[in-house]
Amino acid sequence: MNVARSFNNWRKYRQTVAELGRMSARELDDLGIGRSEIRNVARAAIAR
């Protein structure tokens, strides 16, 4: 994996964590995500 791809993956991970972290518990529940699952969802986002 090259440096640019690693940086982009890190940036996408941090952005996803930040966006989901700003959501209310109800909004997360509507998406089927618990607050404790935010990091796992962000990791899955960079795997795609």
Automatic annotation (TrEMBL):
Provide this UniProt record's keywords sorted from A to Z. Plasmid
InterPro entries given in the database record: YjiS-like
**In what residue span(s) does the YjiS-like domain sit?**
3-39
Please indicate which superkingdom the organism of origin belongs to: Bacteria
Instruction: Please state what the protein is called.
Output: YjiS-like domain-containing protein
